């Protein structure tokens, strides 16, 4: 007998150097993970993401591509101020920095004297591109708006050099494709630089091409019929197998081969080569100073108490984690900010005010489970005493309806009748508004399909109300910074998940009206009862408070004042801070859609009625993770615990699962 060994890897004939995701807003029709998965399935070893004037999807694409075994190349298609385009690809860390600075400059004017209005189109002047050429490879641009004149091309050659400039060839199956490419080949010969073939990808699959057409119409504020001259009209913009792309350029085999040479050269890894450093990471004294600060505060707060030994053990554990992650400088910086806020608060409140005992702000979320946060003043909740653990579309209907040329009045009826929770349920919205028979005729089924496909695609960038990134170097070297809709504010092009993947440290500074109400209450108590309240010392086991909460007498009480919360309070009847924590979390989309609410409430009632009641667990390994919530998954941190305890996930894989959910 003999064994036949098959080699599954087929050497690629072509590497795609020009692709757009949905972060090319209203142009790209696929998400980053769809592009990465399709690239792997079609046999691509590498793929370059080059969104229009943006790297908003670059970090997510890098993560998705790595998971698929595809090497991500990063870049952008940049608009010049004369309407022409250049494709820029990143070769090294300096090139990434220069690309971020160029994109920042391209967006700088987009909201000039127009606060709150939609941004104008970004663009950058050619001299700025020439000044930021280092570390970048420049392709001369797409078929219809690329650079073809020799004078401009020579300026690019002078800046980028012969190793950094390529004349870009595309074949979108337009009437003058061959003539255009012959002109560009002649230009490349005169410049003595190579040509490179690209596909200008805007969708990962042919089935997504109709959505790309509809997005084009939405972007142009017109209908599909009126936008026909600007639409692509074929599938040349869909990601294709390497062999098909090589066959698309039979007259230019050198341009096809150049894609592979370029791919081999462009090795910048956004996940490892960004160069961001934590604040204080270069301060050799940061760990010692944080330990001394926390040690002094621990002695003041726990000396002579039964919790002292546990607090010391917990502090040592957290300091080891902080040391390993190089985060000591961040905690020291945060404390400095709090001390500054404290000084300002004294000036605003007055030193003799009843509010003088109140901290200038309060930590929330996972920060309150950290003893380091407690000892440095970020949180006023004692994690030892409270046993806190460490760790933890209506627009689519209107826009697509307009693009399809549907009657505006009927589109508005559908939009107003929609619950707006998901663009995947538009079929039901159309039937309710117009009737089942009408919903099945004309272009209404296309509205249903396109709305479902558009579900989840980004539409524009929005500002977090209080998120602030802290960096030790200019942030524009790590990520583009663009004007926000709010006047005088700037936002990064990355969302919170991409910032987390990049290792950015982010502080959320939120102005909550309830904190002001609490301060006014403290002053009122001082005037009427002559008692000064220290909120960090109030008990968490006041029976009268819980009796009031169980009656749902909670109008004006932060987190539990909504109608849904008040209705739920009658069922859950919280008796402790732990119960109250679960109650707040129950009225959220995760537990509701996960069908955890009724099981938890029923088990909590049985637990009150029977002392011997034991909650059921789907597997014994889940009991330590789900004990506090009676076998149900309520908190996001429990997703991590279930994934590691039951499925054997690593912490990183578990976090990836949580984010995917």
Structure description:
This protein is α/β, with parallel strands linked by helices and 661 residues long. It is built from 28 helices and eleven strands. It is globular and about 85 Å long. The two termini are 49 Å apart.
Summarize this structure as a short list of keywords or feature phrases:
661 residues; alpha/beta; seven-stranded mixed beta sheet; 11 strands; 8% strand; globular; disordered N terminus
Give the arrangement of secondary structure elements.
Elements: E1 16-19, H1 32-42, E2 46-52, H2 58-68, E3 71-79, E4 85-90, H3 93-107, H4 126-131, E5 136-139, H5 150-160, E6 165-169, H6 177-191, E7 195-197, H7 209-219, H8 242-248, H9 253-265, H10 286-302, H11 308-325, H12 328-349, H13 371-376, H14 394-403, H15 408-417, H16 426-434, H17 436-439, H18 444-454, E8 467-470, E9 481-483, E10 490-492, H19 496-502, E11 505-508, H20 513-529, H21 543-550, H22 563-572, H23 577-586, H24 589-593, H25 597-609, H26 623-626, H27 636-647, H28 651-660
Parallel strand pairs: 1-2, 2-3, 5-6, 6-7
Antiparallel strand pairs: 3-4, 4-5, 8-11, 9-10
Q: What can be said about this structure in brief?
A:
The chain is α/β, with parallel strands linked by helices and 661 residues long. The protein has helices at 32-42, 58-68, 93-107, 126-131, 150-160, 177-191, 209-219, 242-248, 253-265, 286-302, 308-325, 328-349, 371-376, 394-403, 408-417, 426-434, 436-439, 444-454, 496-502, 513-529, 543-550, 563-572, 577-586, 589-593, 597-609, 623-626, 636-647, 651-660, and strands at residues 16-19, 46-52, 71-79, 85-90, 136-139, 165-169, 195-197, 467-470, 481-483, 490-492, 505-508.
